Automatic annotation (TrEMBL):
Residues 2-175 form the Thioredoxin domain. It is found in: Cytoplasm. This is Thioredoxin peroxidase. Pfam families: 1-cysPrx_C, AhpC-TSA. Gene3D superfamilies: Glutaredoxin. It comes from the Bacteria. Its main location: cytoplasm. One of its GO terms (biological process) is cellular response to stress. Belongs to the peroxiredoxin family. AhpC/Prx1 subfamily. InterPro entries: AhpC/TSA, Peroxiredoxin, Peroxiredoxin_AhpC-typ, Peroxiredoxin_C, Thioredoxin-like_sf, Thioredoxin_domain. GO terms for molecular function: thioredoxin peroxidase activity.
Length: 212
């Protein structure tokens, strides 16, 4: 089930901060900041470092919008730290400064509905087994300052994300909060939004959309 419109699941978990410090009790700053929370499958892989570096490259843009970026995978905090200490040219993510959370128990991924498998009862052996892959899909969640999930997308494992889209979506969320308008298709900051009324839609279409 989607988490959009619901309170984001909070957690306390190990994480690496600023690319160098392991902490055992990281928690999301719900109520303090907007949050861009993203899950990725695994450290020391191929698509994943491109995404983590891409989020880092846009970090200042998220910070301008009073948002923090937080990454999560099902690797351990020690593996995260090793990857953070590996140079980019060698497939590492050295230079990433936002928190990278360890979800070794897979409970965070399960709470957010992004785990690429599940625990099931094997009645033939009377054991609990894992079916699927014990890693996270590429899930992305935007959480507002009230702790409510405003956006959710989940990509399959081979499909990398477009980080610019999360900047655009955060702009849209902030615009709605500030002006009470709604954001139409392909809206970007600086473009016209519209009032959520029949007249407002008609006015927007007549002014901004070529219907011929």
């Amino acid at each position: 089930m989607s988490l959009v419109g619901k309170k984001a699941p909070q957690f306390i978990a190990p994480a690496v901060l600023d690319g160098e410090e392991i902490v055992s009790d990281f928690a999301l700053p719900i109520g303090e900041k907007n949050i861009v929370l993203f899950f990725y499958p695994k450290d020391f892989t191929f698509v994943c470092p491109t995404e983590l570096h891409a989020f880092q490259a846009k970090l200042a843009e998220f910070e301008k919008r009073d948002a923090v970026v937080v990454a999560v995978s099902t690797d351990s905090e020690e593996t995260h730290l090793a990857w953070l200490n590996t140079e980019k040219d060698n497939g590492g993510i050295q230079g990433v400064t936002y928190p990278v959370v360890a979800d070794l128990a897979k409970t965070i991924s399960m709470d957010y509905g992004v785990l690429a498998g599940e625990y099931v009862n094997d009645y033939e052996t009377d054991r609990i087994v894992f079916q699927g892959l014990p890693v996270a899909y590429r899930g992305t969640f935007i959480i507002d300052k009230n702790g409510v999930v405003r956006h959710e997308t989940i990509n399959d494992l081979p499909l990398g994300r477009n980080i610019e889209e999360y900047v655009r979506l955060l702009d849209a969320i902030l615009h709605v909060e500030k002006f009470g308008e709604v954001c139409p298709a392909n809206w970007e900051e600086g473009k016209a939004a519209m009032n959520a009324t029949k007249d407002g839609v008609a006015e927007y279409l007549s002014t901004n959309v070529n219907l011929n």
